[in-house]
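Subject: for your reference before the review

Hello V.,

The reviewers asked for a structural picture of the protein, and I figured it would be easier to keep everything in one thread rather than splitting it across files. Below is the amino acid sequence we used in the manuscript, unchanged from the supplementary table.
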Amino acid sequence: MTTVLPSAAATGADDLSVWPSSTARLPHGDLAVGGVPLTEIADRFDTPAYVLDEGEVRARCRTYRDAFPDAEVLYAAKAFLSRAMVRWVAEEGLGLDVCSAGELELAVTAGFPAERIVLHGNAKSPRDIATALRLGVGRIVIDSPSEIARLAAAVGRGGRQKVMVRVVPGISAGAHEKIRTGTDGQKFGLSLTDGSAQHAIPRILGQPQLELAGLHCHIGSQITEVKPYVAALRRMVGLMARIRDAHGVVLPELDMGGGHGIAHRPGDPALDLTALARRLRAELRSSCAAARLPVPRLAIEPGRAVVGPAGVALYRVLAVKHAAGQVFVAVDGGMSDNPRPALYGARYAPRLVGRRSAAVPCTATVAGRHCEAGDVLAAGVQLPGDVRPGDLLAVPVAGAYQLSMASGYNMVGRPPLVAVDAGAARLLIRRETLSDFRSRDIGS
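And here is what came back from the structure prediction:
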């Protein structure tokens, strides 16, 4: 039995607040993003497909630069990276945060200056380190004691590499336990609680190949409150003061990571960037004054908050099934192009585009096409009661951790990514095809 819901107007189902700011309503129920109708993109590039609004990405980069004019803003490449994204970030004056040789090499070969790149990773491979040193990366974040001697040896006699130490400050923050990285008992960083962070400092200072530039922490992802960042910053400044007292070293840099939460559905909470900037600056000044430390240069690493709201995913409905009182709307994508609902319980707000429906809305589960019961893109969402095969569904806030986490499951192939701007659409990343799978399979 179909559950009848109030009208779209009454429930706010027509709310475009989480869509790119360029989104415009068109006749017949269509939407345009970046001046390009979504139905036109689906017809031209097929589905599933990702749409990325270049203007929205650039505007969000500028918003960060304006909010943190004296800080170093590093775009977290793991959220999404392509050659075009590298160019946009560079032109808007941001640095880059990467976590593999692959991300690093793509960025540098696309023209990004290596000295404005920070390399992370809890388990850096020999290739990661060798690539970073060969290309001249600006900072390498040390994540474990074993990396210290290994990195120094890789730098070699006469060389010098700036490093930071990733500190676990003992702050719990983040929307899901799998993305809370500021507490003890997980794989990242060196703990304040057990003294690991403090013990690493003299070991680094004792390596002439390594220059300790500062401290780093990243307390989690999808954080929507300012308070955890302020608490973490206070603890980091306290550690900087203890390093000064114990070793006579004043560290010039403090990287507070990212994890800035965004709204995926209308009404969801989001981090107040203006409040974050104001509170971090005030706390940094007051904490450093109390510790009689010069104020270090602050760095932050937004990823999702830059690219997430700029993306839209497009799917074609393949089947509609009524079973056990539920409505299942199956589409031509799924967990291979967006594993976040299965991994983190992420919630999205898909909407019908391309036709106007007068049908009473119903609750529905938008399911993927993969051979997993957990392949669900959106559960308990509002869709028109007459949704049918061939309809086009659009899902906003699809720019981060979707294509970057996409897989080859069931050999469906990863979707293309289409950039839109000023009424024009262009292909940035082509669709993965069967020939791509065949070319990698060289055995017999």
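For the response letter, the relevant points are probably these. Confidence is low (pLDDT under 50) at residues 1-12. Residues 26 and 32 are 7 Å apart (CA to CA).

Happy to draft the paragraph if you're swamped.

O.
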